[in-house]
Design brief:
alpha+beta, Rossmann fold, 5 domains, 10-stranded mixed β-sheet, 27% helix, binds S-adenosylmethionine, RCMT_NCL1, S-adenosyl-L-methionine, transferase, methyltransferase, SAM-dependent MTase RsmB/NOP-type domain-containing protein
Length: 882
């Protein structure tokens, strides 16, 4: 998904854009109509409420026909495919514990059924199919319509299943073409990877998976991913997305990618300067920040996403792409500068426009003076249908078709720069005759287009009609020698060679100066106001905005009361944030060095000495007595944080590693440890825990997962005793991979199927994961099919108890026929549900009231969502309801 750089660097431009936005009707604010089969997408009209999107654009067709983007005979297929809705595609998260299990389950339960040719109203439902070029059949393509979905129950079930799995993080819904760039990066677990324009993070997630692909329990890879985005709100989205990966090997940063800091240890030869690449003399790798792999999935005009965002038809104009070319080159060149020799860089856009694609590739090759090579990757991912990069194109500027830089009007020379043309040649100033002064509002075209001499055909175009996808562009580079210092220095002017406006078009080299936004001046200001608004149209912006708002809100709530060491001054101004290096308004990332806190964690959880804690625990607060969260970072991330300190703190870090501990003290202060394990931290810590961990049989594990709170006595004897031997507070219940006879017989080295964080109360244990997560876990572990006493208690029973007991009170309800009992504790759980695992359930008192019958083993604790203040002793429940 493309998204143009923010601001454009001009106040007037921002105001104009705001006016434009305010005048524009917001099509997303209304609810959508029920779409029909032939009108799957609709847009509003003032009279009728809704009407179909206008899926055509004369300027789009004129432009791409002229560029010969496809052979003439393919044009109608190309255009008609662009007008069809995009099929659903998703990826099973490859390094997830259950990846292959999910794939097999899906195939067995759903897709095999469709293979036999399902029909709706006589129309065949297209079978689900794996994306053949994606490894291990872990990515799938579904293309049934909404109408089919409504009419065929199996499709509805598939839909629900995918929604649930997506929520839980087992799969990622992602456009097929967007899955391609990370595959060409060929990431290995020891690589340092930079994702320069990473939000919302679907490709970052893939990169992280690759880093973790060979993980063994208890081992972390040597590599890491730095996910960067210039938009701080989108950085939060990025954090939210990647959290599902539970990786300590990630750092999220917030920089304009074209200014991504070069870090070098100040104590090394040649002190660090910002924007420095590897052009200076040799310095040990560990003392500077260089990358093995870089993804430049740059902001772009995004017309390759027309199928997903049909609104682009209405807004399309080629000025957007022209205006982005310069920024795209700058970002990619910054990438080249901080790439290791031998490393790979993938440049990608979801735009079909050669000015954002091949023109940028050509300029990277020219500007890097032979330091990078454009790789021929035709033998990689052989199943992927692709077309060669274009060798020839024209530039459209206002109403003129331009074949070379020499045809550019003088007053447009700051906008239409030589690097946009296939040859990259500038125009000779002695050539500045009248033809370069002419009007640019009249249609004109002069001569045949230039033909590139560089091997641009090695880059790849993915066209929508080749394999029913969106459009995409990918180029793979390898660095073969360091950039010459003179080149690094001249990057700002690379794209304005020959332009008299060159001095206006340099990049902003002062990291403190945010007034210039993304550092791109000049050309952006020349884009029509309408064009400035069109950059994000290919994303369902309303959805993204809502998600960001929810996440930011959540984080703000979380941050409240965070133990930030606020100075008196900060308190006076109400500022929650401190200063991170040279970045104002960002909490610092600090190593946790408070021995008291660390030793309490080690003692409580029995953390083995082999688990490296020193230098791996970081916080965002200087006052450890008030800190709320402790994060864990891998050695690779720890090294970068250290390097950042020694280089003068140039990196602006939004988040580092994963949340491992969170402050949690019961009101009565009965737990000896003030921190519970955060669910994303559990997989990393688990192999090193020797205390507060108990091993359950399948039966007990199921009992726990099926209920939010379970009293000790509900479990089998062995397990109940093991639980009661734990200290009050956070604990982990683990399910051994092989069923054992009795929890006490499980050794701590036992391979585990899974584990779950819990809270150990006085009489019960409660899950610290959401109900949805527990449900998924049950399903995945195939625990559902085992015969266990039903844990479901009829709503009528819950209602009866709720009406008779006070909140916090517990009732044992006995079924007169079966003699089975249920223990119901009256609690208001609505808020708990919403807060998910972040809320600790209140302790449950020992059951007070037992109806006068013998209570058989297996009492099951349930919580009721209703509570009333009636003082009563006994509940009389109809036997049938239990
Ligand atoms: C094409 S989207 C990236 C999509 C992302 N790679 C993914 O797969 O989810 C482009 C991103 O670039 C960011 N962006 C725009 N200008 C930027 C700049 N100068 N530096 C870094 N990021 C920028 C936008 O905020 C946007 O999130």
């Amino acid at each position: 998904m493309g998204r143009r750089g923010r601001d454009g660097g001009n106040k007037r431009g921002r105001t104009q854009r705001r006016d434009f936005r305010d005048r524009r009707p917001n099509v997303w604010k209304k609810s959508r109509p029920e779409p029909s089969a032939d009108q799957p997408d609709a847009q509003p009209s003032s009279e009728t409420g809704w009407m179909p999107f206008v899926m055509e654009s004369t300027s789009f067709e004129l432009f791409y026909k002229k560029q010969c983007i496809v052979p003439e005979e393919e044009w109608s297929t190309f255009i008609s495919t662009l007008k069809k809705p995009l099929p659903t595609t998703f990826r099973i998260n490859g390094s997830g514990q259950f990846a292959h299990g999910i794939r097999d389950q899906m195939q067995r339960d759903f897709f095999d059924y469709l293979k036999d040719g399902a029909e709706v109203d006589g129309e065949e439902v297209a079978p689900a199919r794996p994306l053949l070029w994606y490894p291990d059949n872990l990515a799938w393509h579904l293309s049934f319509s909404r109408m089919q979905l409504r009419k065929l129950p199996i499709l509805e079930r598939i839909h629900e299943f995918l929604k649930q799995e997506n929520e839980i993080g087992s799969i990622t819904r992602q456009e097929a073409v967007s899955m391609i760039p990370p595959l060409f990066l060929k990431v290995e677990p020891h690589h340092k990877v930079l994702d320069m324009c990473a939000a919302p993070g679907s490709k970052t997630f893939q990169l992280l998976e690759m880093i973790h692909q060979a993980d063994k329990p208890g081992e972390l890879p040597d590599g890491m991913v730095i996910a960067n985005d210039s938009d701080v709100q989108r950085c939060h989205l990025l954090i939210h997305q990647t959290k599902r990966m539970c990786s300590p090997n990630i750092l999220v940063t917030n920089h304009d990618a074209q200014l991504f800091p070069g870090l070098k240890d100040k104590s090394c030869r040649g002190a660090a300067t910002l924007n420095e690449g590897d052009a200076e003399g040799p310095v040990e790798d560990g003392n500077r920040l260089l990358f093995d792999r870089i993804l430049c999935d740059v902001p772009c005009s995004g017309d390759g996403t027309l199928r997903k965002a049909p609104d682009i038809w209405r807004k399309w104009n080629c000025g957007v792409a022209n205006g982005l070319h310069r920024l795209q080159v700058q970002i990619a060149m910054r990438g080249v500068a901080i790439l290791k020799v031998g490393g790979r860089l993938v440049y990608s856009t979801c735009s079909l426009n050669p000015v954002e694609d091949e023109a940028v590739v050509g300029e990277i090759l020219r500007a890097s003076g032979g330091s990078v090579e454009l790789l021929d990757v035709s033998s990689e991912l052989p199943e992927l249908k692709r077309r060669p990069g274009m060798m020839s194109w024209k530039i459209r500027d206002r109403k003129r078709w331009l074949c070379s830089a020499s045809q550019v009007n003088r007053h447009r020379a700051g906008v239409v720069v030589p690097s946009m043309f296939p040859s990259g040649n500038g125009w000779d100033s002695s050539d500045a005759d009248e033809k370069n002064e002419g009007p640019d509002e009249t249609e004109s075209e002069e001569g045949p287009p230039e033909i590139a001499t560089l091997p641009l055909e090695r880059s790849m175009r993915i066209l929508p009609h080749d394999q029913d996808t969106g459009g995409f562009f990918i180029a793979v580079f390898q660095k073969i020698s360091p950039l010459k210092a003179s080149i690094t220095e001249s990057v700002p002017s690379l794209v304005s060679e020959g332009s008299q406006h060159e001095n206006q078009n340099g990049i902003n080299r002062d990291p403190e100066d945010h007034s210039l936004g993304n550092g791109v001046k000049g050309p952006i200001m020349d884009i029509p106001v309408s064009a400035l608004e069109e950059d994000e149209v290919h994303e369902d912006e309303e959805e993204v905005t809502d998600r960001i708002a929810a996440i930011v809100e959540e984080e703000e709530v979380e941050e409240e009361g965070e133990g930030v060491a606020t100075t008196a001054n900060q308190r006076a101004t109400g500022s929650r944030f401190q200063r991170q290096g040279r970045w104002r308004g960002v909490d610092p990332v600090l190593f946790l060095e408070d021995e008291k806190v660390i030793s309490s964690l080690v003692a409580f959880y029995g953390i083995k000495e082999t688990f490296p804690l020193s230098g791996h625990l970081v916080t965002r607060s200087e006052d450890s007595s008030r800190l709320k969260r402790i994060y864990y970072v891998s050695k690779s991330v720890s090294d970068v944080i250290r390097l950042n300190f020694s280089a003068g703190e140039h990196l602006k870090m939004t988040s580092a590693g994963l949340k491992m501990f969170e402050r949690q003290q019961p009101k009565d202060g009965t737990s000896p440890c003030a921190f519970r394990i955060a669910s994303e931290g559990l997989p990393v810590l688990l192999p090193y825990m020797t205390k507060q961990i108990v091993f359950a049989s399948k039966r007990d594990f199921k009992l726990l997962l099926s209920n939010k709170v379970v009293s000790f006595s509900a479990f089998s004897d062995n397990f109940s005793v093991a639980l009661q031997n734990l200290l009050h507070g956070c604990c982990v219940v683990a399910l051994p991979a092989k069923e054992v006879d009795g929890a006490d017989k499980v050794s701590s080295d036992q391979p585990l199927a899974t584990a779950v964080g819990c809270w150990h109360g006085r009489t019960n244990v409660s899950l610290l994961i959401t109900k949805a997560e527990a449900g998924q876990m049950l399903q995945r572990l195939s625990l559902n099919d085992e015969t266990l006493p039903s844990t479901a208690v009829d709503k009528t029973v819950q209602g009866a108890v709720a009406s008779e007991f006070r909140e916090g009170e517990t009732a044992v309800v006995v079924n007169g026929d079966t003699k089975r009992a249920a223990i119901l504790t009256v609690q208001r759980t609505q808020d708990d549900e919403m807060a998910g695992v972040d809320r600790m359930p209140e302790d449950v008192e020992t059951p007070k009231l037992v109806k006068g019958e013998q209570v058989v083993p297996d009492p099951i604790v349930e919580t009721s969502s209703q509570a009333m203040d009636i003082d009563a002793d006994v509940v009389d429940v109809p036997a049938t309801t239990l």
